[in-house]
Every structure is written in structure tokens, then in C-alpha cells.
Amino acid sequence: MIPLPLLPGFSRWGAHLEALLARPEALWIHGPSGSGVSTLAAEFAQHRGGPWAEASDTEEGAAWLATHPGGVVAARNPMPGTLACLELRLPSLEEDPACIPGLLAALAEAEGILDAWPPVLGALPCPGNLRELRNRLLRWKLLGQLPGSEPAGPPRYEAEDLATNLHDLERFLLHRALRRAYGNRVEAATRLGVSRRQLYLLIRRHGDPVRGESASGDLPQRMRKRRSAQNSSPEPGAR
Question: How far is CA 37 from the centre of its chain?
Fold first, then answer.
């Protein structure tokens, strides 16, 4: 388990740690995915001698606290305003980048990595936070893989029509997901929330920057309709 002083934001809430542990109220801990919310909730519950639970949404967390007064909830969403309990938000690594070196050192020790690691492993952005840091270490240790640079963007949406802007956004999100997944297409599909078949259609349309595959040049139907309409429009001033 990662020591509490290494978690994001400890410099702010760590000074009140003893007071938080001594309070009888229920505690709602939330933050971005992978920011250490569950780690902190389990640690707090152990010190308090009470139960804790993970909540997928606010309703589930509120229902659990109704039957476990004084418990600790680990959630992604802020506390509902109707609950009478304490609330602690863990920031993301982007909000507290100073904690990254210490976290990397702790994760490397846990994985038995004794040699120095490439600085790029701690580069931002780091989607998934602590989970992604650990994945980066393991990929480098086992496969020699390093995170690639993020694609330029997001798009500036300079076109006026919706079809062109959607096409540009689709390419940006696809390339970002492929880079963040180190080219692993199953993982990229999961990140995008699409099927593997849909992912391969997107790759055919936009290419794969990780594997160096070029786009086929095929356009989606909305783009073909847009261009067809443009080509069939009369010239300005024509009668």
C-alpha cells in the first residue's frame, strides 16, 4: 500500500489527518479515477476501526452510509448535499505534480525495480493517475515500452460545418487513445468505449500513429455528403 504522505494533495489535508481520524462523522472521499481514493478510504477505515465501501455513484454511496453511520466511502463524485458527513477530495497528479517522484519511487520499490527509471515515466499528462504510473513502470520493466508524446490538439474547430469538426475530433481522440495504450488496440477500444470492430474502422479511416499505419483516405458518409453538397453548389453570383 502506498504511504499516505505520498498521495496527491497530502500537503493540504495531511496537516488535519489526526483530526479527521478522530471525528465520529461519516467520511466521503472522492477524486479522479486512480488518484488513490480507495487506498485512502481503506487506511482511514482501519485507523477508525470501522467499515468502508466503494461507491459507483452518489446514490449507492448515500444508501450505504444510511446503514453504516460513521463509515468511509470511496467515490468518484462529490458528496451529495443532503448528507451530513465530512468530505475530502483527492486531487489528480496534474494538480499536484510534485508528488510524482515519490510515488514512482514507492511503486518501483514495490515492483522490485532497483535501477533508475527514465524520467519520461513521470511525464504529464498521466491519465489514470496512480494506476497509470504503475502501468508505465510495468510496461517499461517487462516490455521496454515508454509512453509516447500526446497528439497535438485538441482540434481548433476552425471549420464551420459539423461534419468536418466531428471528423477532426474523432481523429484526435483515436490517436490519443492509441498512444496512451502504447498501441494496444484492445486497451484503446476500452478507453474509447467502442468495440474492436469499430476501432479497426476508425484506424482504417485515421491511421495508427503508434504502428506507423497511414489513413486509407476513406471518408465517413457525413463527410462524403458534405463534399458532394459543396461540389454541387452553384458558383457565387451564378443564376
Answer: 14
